[in-house]
Every structure is written in C-alpha cells, then in structure tokens.
Amino acid sequence: MRYLQMYLPEMLSLIAMSLMLGAIAEGQSKGKSGLTSRPCTSATGLHCEIYGSGDPILFLHGLGGSTYSWRYMVDPFSLHNQVILIDFRGEGQSPKPDDKHYSILDQGELIYQFIVEHNLRRLTLVGNSYGGAVSLLLAIRLCAEPHSRLEKLVLIDSGGYPDHLPLFLKILRTPVLGWLAVHLLPPALQIYIVLRKSYYDPAKITKPQIEAYARPLASRGGRHALLQIGKGAIPKDIKDYVAKYPTISVPTLILWGEDDKVLRQDVGERLNQAIRNSRLEYIKHAGHIPQEEQPDAVIARLKEFLTP
Questions:
Q1: What are the residue ranges in the chain where pLDDT is below 50?
Q2: CB within 8 A of 128, min separation 6: which ones?
C-alpha cells in the first residue's frame, strides 16, 4: 500500500496525458536511409547491426530502447567509421528468454564478450541513459586492462548513481506495481508515457516511433524482460563501481539535454567531476534522449569530439 500511495498519483497523471495518444502526428521518423547492415552475428545471441568501416563506434541504447534509438547516427558516422548498433538482451530484436539473467552486470558482460569476440580496438563507446550506465561499467573494466581497447567514451543523459533514478525505473522496481504497469497498460501506451516524459517537445513524438518501440515490448517475453531489466538495473555493490569512476582515463564527452526531466543536470555534473578527463556540454531544446529529439546538434558535438 505504501508503494501505491507513493506512485499512484504520478501514474494517474501520466495515464491522463496518454489520452492524447490519438492526436500524435503521423509524421515519419527518419530511419537508416537506404543503408543495409553488413552481416553481424555474435556468440552472445544479441541482435547487432554494422555499417561502414574504420575505427568502431558502438552505440548502446536506453531502457526500453533498441537499435532504432540511433537511426539518425548511422548515415553521418558510417562514412568514416564502423558503426555498431546492439540491442540489449531482452530488448529490440535480441532474445527474451524466460529467466532472470537481465541484470546490468549481465548486460555489461554480454557487451564485453561482443567487443572481444569482434576484436574491437580504438573503440568509441556511446551510451544513452541505461546504455550510459552500462558504458560506465565497461569503461571501468576496459581502462583497467593493459593495452585498452577503449579510445573514447560518450555519455548521453547517462545513468550512474543509485540516488537518481527515473520514475519509470522506480515503478518497474516496485513490487506488484511494476508488474501491473507492464501487464495492464498496452505497450504503445507505456512507450508514449515514457517518451512524453523524455521529450522537451512532445509534439515531435511520432506514431512510427511509438510503434517501433512498442513492437518488441508486445512480443513474446517482452514484458517479462523489461521487468527483469528494471529489477536488475542497480548492482548491489553499486557504490564500489561509483568509487571507480575516476579510474576511467579515456577522453570522455558528457552530453545532457538542457531540459531533461528524467535525470537532472546535476547527475551530469557529478559524472563530470568524477571522470577526470571529461567535459560536460548541454543540448538546447532537448530532454532525456537528445539523439532523437535534436540529432543534428548531437551529431555536431560527436563529430567535433571524434576529430583528432
């Protein structure tokens, strides 16, 4: 009952906003224009896509996201780099087995296995939100190795601290309430609620975008996987990992939507203080997923950062 008292008013408010779902623009969300992914297979079983050639850039999406989250990044960066997109276990087109191996440590281990399997070197790791939190764990591990494979790190509105959790993650982690939210609300409605919270300008949300994210959630195992990912999003020894952020030695760019209502700006400021070789920049007129809401601004910042 205490959990219901804490979160029910906010949930009702979000559900009320979702009544606007039918008024969303039919506008097309730009995809990967005409480019076809090179064959990408992995012993991890994760769905992956590879475009272009050159030094690799690996993009890791947020909670409930997929390779679709990076659709605007493929064309501009595959001209001179190998662009690699991966769906986390339980999301997008990756497997969604009926088990509990969905913790953030499990996800990080699978991505690390992929990096080693594909012998990725001079790697730039780019992570948004939950994908940023996974990127932090990977950066700690990779920087501790001799002859590190990691060249640069980009964190976009990244998770990283247990005392700053998005509302929808809190709901997923709440007994009973999380199950009810995932199983009673239609997938498209869940996605719209999260996107509306994540956007500075909700008018930019499109039906194709909602459908792209709702499809994996509605698929077999999708709801189970989302719940398990939420439950396992915070390692029990998270404080030990936070204490290791200063060991990340590669140049790091931290981008933050100036109007992020999911993770406040002070999370980015804390990461900037903890990671010595980092800089923090803000994206105007953007919320929690600036790579979707203001892709041109994000592309420009990434290109500047990646230029030797």
A1: 1, 3-4, 7, 14, 16-23, 28-29
A2: 60, 61, 62, 65, 69, 156, 157, 158, 289, 291
Domain residue extents for the chain: 34-164+234-306
Asked whether 136 and 107 are in contact (CB, 8 A), the reply is no
Structure-block tokens of residue 120: 């990725």
pLDDT score recorded for residue 164: 83
The tokens describing 235, both together, are 């390692």
pLDDT for position 209? 97
Note the pLDDT tens digit of each residue in 129-156.
999 999 999 999 999 999 999 999 999 9
Q: Which residues contact 147 (CB under 8 A, 6 or more apart)?
A: none
Please calculate the CA angle 46-133-111 and round it to the nearest 5 degrees.
25
CATH value of 34-164+234-306 in 3.60.150.10, 1.25.40.10, 3.40.50.1820, 3.40.50.300: 3.40.50.1820
Sheet of strand 278-283, all strands in order from the earlier edge strand to the far edge: 48-51, 82-86, 56-60, 123-128, 150-156, 252-257, 278-283
pTM for the whole thing? 0.91
The answer to whether 157 and 260 have CB atoms below 8 angstroms apart is: yes
| Virtual torsion, Cα 156, 249, 301, 211, nearest 10 deg | -30
Compute the chain's Rg from CA coordinates.
18
pLDDT given for residue 287 in this prediction? 98
